[in-house]
Amino acid sequence: MALSKAPWIDAEVHALNAWQDFGMVHPFTCGTDGCGQSLIATNDGWVCPDCDYIQDWAHTYMVDGSYIENYRDAMGQFMHEGKSDEDNGETTDEPDTSETSSGR
Length: 104
Known about the structure:
Elements: E1 3-5, H1 10-22, E2 40-42, E3 45-47, E4 54-55, E5 57-59, H2 65-81
Antiparallel strand pairs: 1-5, 2-3, 3-4
């Protein structure tokens, strides 16, 4: 997989931090033993908010802002497809035909 090395321009930093905040992929984390904090992208590379750890690379696709937007859209559509009308907040005028526990 191709890598992109820092320094990164502002738009790339924004895209990298969007991946970190996305929640559907594991974020880059600090490589210092026992730390494990999520890294923050800056123009000069990834930095740990709790120590002096720095990482100077990311996967090339991550610096492309359109890639994260397309991924978000695809995941949103995928997640939406599995929901019922009730889960989507929509109501129907169909009568409730579920059985009750009254023994009838």
